[in-house]
Design brief:
Elements: H1 2-18, E1 29-34, H2 40-54, E2 57-62, H3 66-78, E3 85-86, H4 92-100, H5 108-121, H6 124-128, E4 131-132, E5 143-144, E6 147-159, H7 160-165, H8 177-189, E7 193-196, H9 203-217, H10 219-226, H11 235-250, H12 262-270, E8 274-280, H13 283-290, E9 296-299, E10 312-322, H14 329-339, H15 342-352, E11 355-356, H16 367-373, E12 379-380, H17 391-405, H18 411-429
Parallel strand pairs: 1-2, 7-8, 10-12
Antiparallel strand pairs: 3-10, 4-5, 6-8, 6-9, 6-10, 6-11
Helix pairs in contact: 9-10, 9-11, 9-17, 11-18, 12-13, 17-18
Length: 430
């Protein structure tokens, strides 16, 4: 009888232990904060697709406008409660500050895995915006800290129908600056508006100044100027400033361009009221909404010199970073790999009319977008230079170009004024 009790007791204990269910861990949810109102429907669709494929839920949370989004990110960083994935809107120094505070994961090991498969699928110039090189001036450890979601380039555009009215070949935009200025005479005679752009928002002036500085003096001399090794009174810089004087005198610039905001410029060009525009690849979506029948094409800024190539601003249009403190950071990285793969990138390009960051997706995008995307080898951007010009110097150049256009200042006067400001800023730094 004692033996039976022992056996029964053993069975009870054993069966009691075995009856405890094993807990099944639920898959994580990845939270993404963003500011891109125009992409929200596409993001939601992709989130559903990813959950169906992986079982992992992705919550895209939209916070707009961009100022409100930036404020939310700053507050979250201070409390160390950033989401798994987020973006940073700001200058390189802001990006660097987040990295140095430990908020952003270094993605270099993931980019370089499998013989660099992820890195090689993306445009180099887009990755460069999110990459810090060795011995950079921001004190950030070398690495890639962000994933470009799409890319952008800023170029000139021309209206093909107005070209025909002017007696020009709509398939042959001007390649040289001389040809460009000669069209200005025709524009004046026809009483049309010439080049429109948001030059009331001075960063767009800075963009075109950079384009022509690279063309006139080359990248090395341009960067040497920022480092203080070349003066702004150098003849090459005077030549760059003179370009804007020549455009104004030729009649190729639209009236009121120095106070024009980009939204007004986009409306004028979309409604066939201007022959040329200077705008970014995002304009394709804007023009489509304003005038689906607009007959236009993209072109490079006409070159002034032959020794050096023209440069265009561009690179990553928007980027996502992974929270280095997230418990889901590995899953977040896998999601970003998926999001920037060829199929998803082609869908985003079609749905949002933005250039894909994945270069393998280019052949699947509409023709006008391809015209912006096929010049990525000419792209430059201040975030990739490794050195930064003083804000007061940039402001002086941009405001000075406005003064040249309205006839209040000569290129030589602007060169001297900018150099004086540069010297004062260098003295403060020393």
């Amino acid at each position: 009888m004692r033996c039976i009790f022992v056996v029964l007791n053993f069975i009870f204990i054993f069966s009691g232990c075995a009856s405890k269910p094993t807990a099944v861990e639920a898959p994580p949810t990845i939270t993404v904060w963003h500011w891109m109102t125009d992409r929200e429907p596409a993001f939601q669709k992709l989130a559903k697709d990813y959950q169906a494929q992986s079982g992992i839920k992705v919550n895209f949370e939209l916070y707009a406008p961009s100022d409100a989004y930036s404020q939310k990110i700053r507050v979250a960083a201070q409390g160390e409660n950033l989401p798994d994935v987020f973006g940073i809107l700001g200058e390189t120094r802001d990006f660097a500050a987040f990295i140095k505070a430990g908020h952003i994961l270094d993605l270099t090991p993931y980019m370089d895995a499998h013989s660099g498969a992820w890195r090689n699928s993306l445009f180099n110039k887009a990755l460069a915006v999110n990459e810090f090189r060795e011995a950079n001036s921001y004190g950030v450890s070398a690495g890639v800290y962000g994933v470009p979601l799409d890319v952008t380039t800023i170029q000139m555009l021309y209206n093909k129908d107005l070209f025909i009215e002017l007696g020009l070949d709509p398939e042959k935009p001007p390649l040289t600056f001389k040809e460009f200025l000669e069209i200005g005479k025709k524009i004046e005679q026809a009483d049309m508006q010439g080049l429109v752009s948001g030059w009331g928002e001075t960063w767009m002036i800075d963009c075109l100044v950079t384009n022509y500085a690279f063309n006139v003096m080359g990248e090395d001399k341009f960067l040497a100027t920022i480092r203080g090794e070349v003066l702004y009174t150098d003849p090459d810089w005077v030549r760059v400033f003179t370009i804007f004087k020549e455009m104004q005198e030729s009649g190729v610039l639209a009236g009121g361009i120095v106070t024009m905001i980009n939204k007004v410029a986009e409306q004028l060009f979309a409604n066939n009221k201007a022959v040329f525009a200077f705008n970014g690849s995002w304009c394709v979506n804007v023009y489509k909404g304003m005038n689906p029948n607009l007959n236009y094409a993209a072109m490079l800024p006409p070159k002034v010199a032959d020794e050096y190539p023209i440069a265009i601003w561009g690179g990553a249009g928007s980027s996502f970073m992974v929270n280095a403190r997230s418990k889901n950071k590995e899953q977040a990285v896998e999601f970003l790999k998926w999001l920037t793969a060829e199929k998803q990138q082609a869908y985003l390009a079609e749905a949002t009319m933005n250039l894909p960051a994945n270069k393998e997706s280019l052949e699947k995008i509409p023709g006008i977008l391809l015209q912006f995307g096929d010049d990525m080898d000419l792209v430059t951007h201040p975030n990739t230079w490794g050195v930064s010009e003083f804000p007061l110097v940039i402001e002086a150049i941009d405001r000075g170009i406005q003064s040249i256009i309205i006839g209040e200042k000569t290129p030589e006067e602007l060169a001297r004024e900018v150099q004086e400001i540069k010297e004062r800023e260098l003295a403060k730094k020393r």
